[in-house]
Amino acid sequence: MFQALNPLDATSLLTTLGTAGVFLVLFAETGLLIGFFLPGDSLLFTAGLLCTTTRDGVHLSLPAVLAASAAGALLGAQVGHLLGRRAGRAFVARTTNRHLANGVTRAEELLARYGHGKAIVLARFIPVVRTVLNPLAGIVGVPTRTFALWQVTGGLAWTAGLVLGGYALGSSIPNVDRYLLPLVGLIVVASLLPLALELLRARREGRAAEPDHKHTV
Question: What is the pLDDT of residues 142-159, one digit of tens each?
Answer without folding.
Answer: 999 999 999 999 999 999
